[in-house]
Amino acid sequence: MSTHLLAIVVCDFPFEETLTENGVKVRIYTAPHHLQKAEYALSSASKILTYYEKYFGVPFPLKKLDLAVIPDLARSGAENWGLITLREDSVLCGGDCPMATKYRLATLLAKQLAHQWFGDLVTMRWWDEQWLNEGFSTYISRKGVKHVEPDLDKEDDIELLRLTDAMISDRAIYSRPIVQRVEKVSEMYDDIECKKGSSILRMLENSIGDDFREGISVSSSFKMFSFKSLKPMK
């Protein structure tokens, strides 16, 4: 496991739990007075995890997946392997939760869960290929959202927004190649990696059709490079 994927949370929070179809124990930990508002996140995470196992053709390799809801966190979520950390104001969703909030939450969960395969199970050898982790997880997340919230499917709108954001970043004077030598990790994680990467993968799937999924699940870099680092062939 890559060292940047290690997380340890020390807390006295209660939790709710459920089991996926394959018996993976999924738990969500949060402050006691917010526990009921975490049920939607728990249910969605379990459904998306099961969907990804079927889509990728590779089971989730761990026996458990914990979601830790942190009151104060710099990012809305982080894909630590088997222990996803989520910022409180990004996750809590009660019974009267607006549909737009549910959609944002499902999108956040779908991306962090996709990272359990893209980036966690198989990790790029160095940061210059990080766009593959971020691009794939961003693109695949829309499939996870569509599975768990089909009535909220805004696939075309979301992809158009991602493409527009990527083009705006790409025309700026500070734009950069999607693959580049990385000196500082802080230079990464921007619209070039995530949204341009996602748009490229969308074009690829539209061009080759079902071969896109087969390339992931059958030839499967997940099967060949599980628990290893990968350097793409050029």
TrEMBL record:
Cofactor note: Binds 1 zinc ion per subunit.
GO cellular component terms, semicolon-separated: cytoplasm; extracellular space; plasma membrane
Pfam families, alphabetized: Peptidase_M1 (PF01433)
Span of domain Peptidase M1 membrane alanine aminopeptidase: 40-232
GO molecular-function terms, A-Z: metalloaminopeptidase activity; peptide binding; zinc ion binding
Entry's localization field: Cell membrane
Recorded topology in the membrane: Lipid-anchor; GPI-anchor
Assigned keywords, A-Z: Aminopeptidase, Hydrolase, Metal-binding, Metalloprotease, Protease, Zinc
Alphabetical GO biological process terms: peptide catabolic process; proteolysis
InterPro entries: M1_APN-typ (IPR034016), Peptidase_M1 (IPR001930), Peptidase_M1_aminopeptidases (IPR050344), Peptidase_M1_dom (IPR014782), Peptidase_M4/M1_CTD_sf (IPR027268)
Protein residues bound to Zn(2+): 115, 134
Cofactor(s) needed for function: Zn(2+)
TM region positions: none
Top-level taxon of origin: Eukaryota
UniProt family annotation: Belongs to the peptidase M1 family.
Protein name, UniProt field: Endoplasmic reticulum aminopeptidase 2
